[in-house]
Amino acid sequence: MEKASKTPAYEGLMVKRIQNGTVIDHILPGHGFKVVQMLGLDKFPDTIAILLNAKSDKLPTGRKDLIKVSNRVFTEEELNIIAVISPTATINVVENSQVIKKFGVKIPKKIIGFFKCPNNKCITNHEDHPAEFSIKNVNSEDMKNRSATTLHTVRVKCEFCERSFELDQLIIPVITQEEV
Ligand SMILES: [Zn+2]
User: Which of 122, 132, 100, 107 is nearest to 22 (CA)?
Assistant: First the structure.
């Protein structure tokens, strides 16, 4: 365990600005924790601030989740996962306390190699082949207009065994810390 720093544990109502890293903003309320889990951020060794159900003027839900990750930039693949979980998300890349890039996420047609297929008999679990899932029933306009209390579920189909699953059923691979 590290010794406690001089920074007070309580830093005010809103989370502190980050110096370097990424802010994932405008996540649909209720979906922030899923982003944390699916991207393995709970195991990330640097500071993560998670704000749940914050007020939002931009989202029709009136509420949003927000995640600040220090010293981390997300890959295209990870941004795709964020998009599938919450198509409303906006990404702010921060360097030296300045937002140097800001953009929305885009739902991919497919997710390749990020998840494993839950079907034991699927060929991707027996041969060295990444699983591919096509994304079904995602309509970002529709999702943006969901009420704050509705969680959206996304269905995906394995391109190899053709089984359909909920996104939550997919098996998340062990996250390595190589990118740190
Ligand atoms: Zn499969």
Answer: 100
pLDDT value at position 139?
56
Structure-block tokens of residue 81:
């996962």
Q: Cβ neighbours of residue 129 under 8 Å, at least 6 residues apart?
A: 123, 160
Of the candidates 154, 163, 162, the one whose C-alpha atom is nearest the C-alpha of residue 136 is 154
* DSSP percent split of the chain into helix, strand, coil, nearest 5: 15, 30, 55
Phi/psi for 151 (5° steps) reads -90, 135
User: Tell me: the pLDDT tens digits for 115-144?
Assistant: 999 999 999 999 988 999 998 766 555 555
Measured in Å, residue 111 CA sits from the centre of ligand 1 at 12
Ligand 1 centre from 94 Cα, in Å?
38
Which CATH topology does 21-169 take? Alpha-Beta Plaits (3.30.70)
| Spacing of C-alpha 94 from chain mean position | 17
Q: How far is the CA of 115 from the centre of ligand 1 (A)?
A: 10
What is residue 128's DSSP assignment?
A: T
Q: How many CA atoms lie within 13 A of 108 on its CB side?
A: 16
Q: How far is the CA of 161 from the centre of ligand 1 (A)?
A: 4
CA of 87 to the centre of ligand 1 (A): 25
For residue 168, how many other CB atoms are within 10 A of its CB?
Answer: 12
